[in-house]
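Quick note —
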Amino acid sequence: MPRAPHPSRKTFTRFASKQPFQFGLPNVSSGLTQTSDNSPIYFTRATSLLRRQVLAKADGVKIKSDNYRFQVLPRDGWGERDFSGKSVLFLIPDDALGDCVGMALFLRALKKRFGDIRIGVLNAGSASDIFVLVQGIEIFQLFISSAQLKRFDHVIDLSEMEGWRDIATMPVNPEEALCEAFGISPIPLEKRQLPTGARLKIGIVPMASSPLRTLPPKLVSEVTKMLTNRDCDITIVLNAYQGVMKDYKAALSDLGIRTGRNIRVIDGFKTIGDLVKFVGQQDYLVVADSGPAHISKLFQTPGIGLYSSADAKTLQGRHTNLRAWQSDFTGPHCSAPCGLAKLRATPDGKIGCMGSLGLPITALPDTPEKSDPELARALVTNKPVPCVARLETDIPAISDLISQDLAKA
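Predicted structure written out below.
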């Protein structure tokens, strides 16, 4: 017997508007901007940017409630449903790029299993451009109207997936976990080879959202210098949305990396859609444990993924397009991969990880409440955490592996 629906984990804001409105995030392609449709009620996540920064100040908007919960299909019944001919709205837990790539790959598999299913995603946020790559799904970047909601037969809260509450401390592989939960097979993967007889396009994406996963500038510099001796065009992509980008760029410059010849250094892309397009166009990637490493799964772009605190086997899963290199740091309080996705804090406010602070995980109970810009700059430039610093000693071996890969072109 199918289980009866129950309330979603996350709360949503119910609001009404007397005036037409439209809204879209600045780092999402303009084609995904949402507009009102004269519905009496709209819904957005209570913690969304739309709720926090726009609705409270917008003329003609009335907040009805901040405690609305959708009625969703229980987790233990996902694999029992026949979704043929049904319309299903998926509530996206967060807009982390890697997680959303896994969800997008799962949705591809779901469409393959139930060819006539109709799919929508709500709360796609900054990752909305990822879901564009799943043909025929409806993307609700930040809100959905009551009229639109009525079109769906079922609502599924993906945050009910096991492990999602601990994802900040122990990464999971959403694609494989969700396919297993729904009892479906992942989509087959096509092998993408390096082109032969052509000038290669090589993308280097060294910055992640956390210093625990951002590549040392020295490693990027040495790999880039090695690549300049080859017939290729090198693009180093930074992240303009991160406060440490300018310092990281300066560190690369100090190490001799300059735009010119066959090297291009860009501060980042305006939209995630531009980043997705870039990853798909490259012939080979050198990436940190970051969103672009996961985006490469969508295109099976060849390359090498360099991992520090997170387990490469878990994150890459069945995808072998990237050769995985795992930091093998071992210290008195931790060994890589420890599983941390973000920095932690001691009760008295010291920020770092087990290796950088010389403390056991039990002494780091929380994630930091406040940012420390000076510490962040140091961690991504001249004082990386131990598992990241360990990658510097691996530079010759990493460079050799990249050379071996490119020799096949």
